[in-house]
TrEMBL record:
Descriptive protein name: Probable DNA 3'-5' helicase RecG
The entry's keywords: ATP-binding, DNA damage, DNA repair, DNA-binding, Helicase, Hydrolase, Nucleotide-binding
Molecular function GO labels: ATP binding; DNA binding; DNA helicase activity; hydrolase activity
Ranges of residues in domain Helicase ATP-binding: 281-442
Organism: Adlercreutzia hattorii
Gene3D superfamilies, per the entry: Nucleic acid-binding proteins, P-loop containing nucleotide triphosphate hydrolases
Signal sequence, start to end: none
UniProt record, GO biological process: DNA repair
Coiled-coil stretches: none
Gene for this chain: recG
Residue intervals of the Helicase C-terminal domain: 507-660
Length: 727
């Protein structure tokens, strides 16, 4: 019977339950993995492969190297070394010796692996306490009678309910159901890059015979993802401005002039250039899409302030969206005050704004009484409707999703957009990933001469940090003490981190657990007691002569505001805080920061944290206290010591450059990119961009017969985003 290619192609969007062996229970388990349709299943790519052709034995495996070992489970035990920590320990034997396998926080392995099972483990071999070991390796039970095609076993992301072995079977059935599907890539492109057909690539990425074949499949699928992304961005950009009259802002008006004149300092050369570039983009009669990139503390806020004033001068309105209440409030107090002094009517709207006040602000914004509205996610609420939004500014844009950005922009008719971010991204990649984006960079802090030094201290040395803190306090300066998260909430966070670790593994990156604290939901789980205890202890002992304040995510907005105000006013000199202070907090008189258990934080986060000091003219000292003996942790902390530059740090830590973060969407896959790694695939991104441009030049709506399948794929890949942009 001939294969019905059209039917196979259309079946991609049918529910996954049509695939053989997918019972309702399994369908539910698959949904947890984000797999709802056959398409989702076929793009549920393996997170790694076990290359059975590279098998070592317990005896021959070399310490420090990554390899696969096949053996029999001699014993499996659940251990609880600490009340909040569970680990599974497996003694694996083969004819040549013993390997001790330790798996943290995967207690369900006790149900999946039994003594006597044949398993393959894949990971880095270490040597400790007399045994060769692997920690958190990939473990695969080689089921009895299970056929392993070729010598490569794919390991798909799995759950407690659905083992990798089951996912493997279901994927194989899914491939069967979709056999013969169309290839949407125009033949010319496939030939030019010698790409496999889509059908072959999907087969080969799930069940490669060799690792080389898997690489070839990946190459084809990465190109495909990127081509869709570029086509989407270009078409979307064109659609956003179509039919709307873009705003040409007045950039030499009185409010802008008054604002600039009122600043207490002179802009640095880089800030001036960024300001000019932004104002030029606003003045142009096109829809501006501008990103201002600068490391923490480089003074992006004041530059953005000019844009807000220009909107007010142009009889337009602007919104400034910030990720946290503390930050929004700070913008209101600093920037807001300067703007008001210049005749701009500014208001603040957050989740804790009282109902009556909120109603008045919403009304004022709708009627045009308010020129600039500063706020948090509260701004996105449907009843916040500006009269004439001409500019949307998003601070810390990496903390917002594509959908939130779209929602804000949809509040106006093709408003200009300005994004502020400290996430480093090379220019060419930013252009490729955002479509028509213009960029400004600020590389240096205003007070670069005032140095900020970072030192890593062991627990025993932490007295040095307190000594330095007391000296600073004696000079009238202020101190941050950052507490780590501990206790059961930390465990929940670690479980989340484990999920991300799997993604990172899939991307071939090293993973650092502590990069995990990212949003307010995470922060809400702070271990409040630990921070409280630390604050009390420090007040009684080390800092008895000063006033110690406490700031953590469990506090109400009002209490947070109060302590921040006291700290800003100098009534509180030592602020003990959880990572609530991570983003944006600006107290130039704070010159010392002590971070406890620094190894528990990610580099990105540590860098954000230390950005809270050294913001004034005085030199600043950062102390990273860690009791860790782990080589990897210490190497990461040493990187903090050796460079103060976020961009350099990012080169060291690839995890800072996850493509999801850069697209402003943390949900992996929601951005339509599942395989792309922007570090590795830079050249492909550029090629896809050029190809997309060429395609749209000859066929702007992708209507030619050769392009219809392509257009459909682009729509489907980004259905989520375009639905929001359109709505
Ligand atoms: P970020 O880029 O991290 O958002 P901010 O905009 O918060 O940085 O600025 C950091 C600090 O530097 C603030 O205290 C701000 O007032 C100050 N600042 C900004 N520009 C200058 C300047 N040109 N001269 C002196 N201080 C400045
Ligand atoms: Mg900022």
């Amino acid at each position: 019977m001939p294969i019905d290619r059209e039917k196979a192609t259309l079946s991609l969007d049918e529910p996954v339950s049509r695939v053989r062996l997918v019972s309702p229970a399994r369908a539910a388990a698959l949904e947890k993995l984000g797999v709802c349709t056959l398409r989702d299943l076929l793009t549920h790519f393996p997170r790694s492969y076990i290359d059975l052709s590279q098998v070592e034995t317990c005896g021959t495996a070399r310490i420090g190297e990554v390899c696969t070992i096949r053996g029999t489970v001699h014993e499996i035990k659940l251990k609880k070394p600490r009340y909040n920590l569970k680990l599974v320990e497996i003694a694996l034997v083969d004819g040549t010796g013993i390997l001790v396998v330790t798996c943290f926080r995967q207690p369900w392995l006790m149900d999946q692996v039994k003594a006597g099972d044949a398993v393959a483990v894949s990971g880095k071999v270490t040597f400790d306490y007399g045994y060769k070991r692997m920690t958190n390796p990939f473990i695969e039970v080689i089921g009895e009678g299970e056929e392993v095609t070729g010598s490569v076993v794919p390991v798909h992301p799995a759950t407690e309910k659905l083992t990798a072995a089951w996912v493997r079977r279901i994927v194989a059935n899914g491939l069967e159901a979709a056999e013969g599907l169309f290839d949407p890539l125009p033949l010319g492109l496939r030939l030019r890059y010698r790409l496999m057909s889509r059908n072959a690539a999907l087969r080969a990425i799930h069940f490669p015979r060799t690792m080389a074949e898997a690489d070839e499949a990946r190459r084809r699928l990465v190109y495909e993802e990127l081509l869709y992304l570029e086509l989407f961005l270009m078409q979307e950009g064109a659609a956003r401005s179509a039919g709307c009259v873009p705003h040409a802002h007045v950039v030499d008006g009185p409010r802008l002039g008054a604002f600039a004149a009122s600043l207490p300092f002179e802009l640095t050369g880089e800030q001036q250039r960024a300001r000019d570039e932004i104002l030029a983009a606003l003045a142009a009669p096109t829809v501006a899409n501008h990103m201002l990139l600068g490391d923490v503390g480089t003074g992006k806020t004041v530059v953005a302030g000019h844009a807000l004033a220009a909107a007010a001068d142009s009889e337009g309105q602007a919104m400034l969206l910030a990720p946290t209440e503390v930050l929004a409030r700070q913008h209101m107090e600093g920037l807001g005050e300067c703007l008001e002094g210049a005749g701009v009517r500014v208001a603040l709207l957050t989740g804790s704004t009282a109902a009556a006040e909120r109603a008045a602000i919403v009304e004022g914004f709708a009627s045009g009484q308010v020129d600039v509205l500063i706020g948090t996610h509260a701004l996105l609420s449907d009843d916040v409707v500006p009269r004439n939004l001409t500019l949307a500014v998003i601070d810390e844009q990496q903390r917002f999703g594509v959908d939130q950005r779209a929602k804000l922009l949809a509040k106006g008719q093709a408003p200009d957009a300005l994004y502020l971010t400290a996430t480093p991204i090379p220019r060419s990649l930013a252009l490729a990933l955002y479509g028509n984006l213009t960029l400004s960079y600020i590389k240096h802090r205003p007070h670069d001469s005032a140095r900020r030094t970072t030192r890593v201290l062991s627990r025993e040395q932490q007295g040095d940090a307190f000594e330095a803190a007391r000296e600073a306090l004696d000079r009238g300066e202020q101190v941050f003490v950052v507490c780590p998260l501990v206790g059961k909430d930390a465990e929940a966070r670690d479980a989340k981190a484990a999920g991300r670790a799997r993604e990172a593994d899939a991307a071939g990156e090293e993973y650092h657990p502590a990069v995990a604290i990212e949003d307010d939901a995470d922060l809400a789980g702070d271990d409040v007691t630990a921070a409280t205890r630390e604050a009390e202890m420090l007040q009684r002992t080390t800092f008895a002569d000063w006033t110690v304040g406490l700031l953590h995510g469990g506090m109400g907005a009002e209490a947070k505001r109060e302590v921040m105000e006291q700290f800003r006013a100098g009534e509180v000199q030592v602020l003990v805080a959880t990572t609530v202070i991570e983003v944006g907090v600006d107290v130039p008189n704070a010159t010392v920061m002590i971070v406890q258990d620094a190894d528990r934080f990610g580099l990105a986060q540590l860098h954000q944290l230390r950005g809270r000091v050294g913001r004034g003219e005085k030199a600043a000292e950062v102390f990273l206290v860690s009791a860790s003996q782990r080589e990897e942790s210490l190497a990461r902390l040493a990187a903090m010591e050796s460079t103060d530059d976020g961009f350099e740090l990012a080169a060291f830590d690839l995890s800072l450059r996850r493509e999801g973060d850069i697209l402003g969407n943390r949900q992996h896959g929601a951005s339509g990119l599942k395989l792309v790694n922007i570090m590795r695939d830079g050249a492909v991104i550029e090629a896809a961009r050029a190809d997309a441009q060429a395609l749209l030049e000859v066929d702007p709506n992708l209507e030619e017969p050769d392009h219809v399948a392509l257009a459909r794929e682009v729509r489907l890949a980004f259905a989520h985003e375009s639905a929001i942009v359109g709505g």
